[in-house]
Amino acid sequence: MKRLLCVSLLFVLALVFCGAPPENTETPTTETEVSKGKAFESLTEAELQKWLKVYPIAKVEFEKAGKRIEVKGDENPIAALDKYATINKEVAGLDAKLTAAGMPWSEFWPVTAKVMAAIGAYAMSTQLGEGLTEMEAQLKDPNIPAAQKEMIKGILESLKEAQKVYEGVPKQNMDLIGKYWDDLEKLFESE
What we know:
mainly alpha; 9 helices
C-alpha cells in the first residue's frame, strides 16, 4: 500500500507539472504552450542523469525562497505548469546555481517537463496496474460498503482519464524512467 501511495504521489506530481499534449500543431506562442510541447519530446539518458543531479539544488532553492507549486481542488494542472515554467524569475540566483551545477534553467525546465510527463506515463502503465486490478476487484466484493465502492469508481474514472494525458509520451522516456525508478523514488521521498 505504501508503494501505491508513493506512486500515486508521483502521478499527481507528473499531472501537475506536465499537463496534456498540445491539441494543435500550430507554432506555440506562450510559455505554457512551449512547456506542454516539451513534455512530450524525447528524453535522453544524459539529460536525465544531469537532471537527477541538478533537481535537488532547484528544490532547495525553491524551499529557501518559500516557493511551492500547489494545485487547489478545482485548479487546472496547466495553470500550475504555467507557474512552474516561470518560477525561476521569482527565485534570486536560481539560474546561476543551476548553471554552476551544469544545467541552466533554459535546459532544466524542458527536461523537468519531459521527466514529469514520463514519470506519470510510467506510473500509469506499470506501477498503477496492480492497484487498478485491486480496485476493480473491490468493486465486485460484496463486503465492501456502497459508499466505498462509489469512491473507488470515482478514482478509477479519474485514473482512466489521466491515462489519456500521457498517450503522447515517447516509450523511450518511460523506459528511462523505469531504469532510474529507484533513484527517482529516493529523490521524491521527502516530498
